[in-house]
Amino acid sequence: MWTLKTGDQGSSPWLHSVNGHVGRQWWEFDPRLGSPEEVAEIERLRQEFHNNRFQNKHSSDLLMRLQVK
Question: Which cellular components does GO assign to this protein (predicted)?
Answer without folding.
Answer: lipid droplet
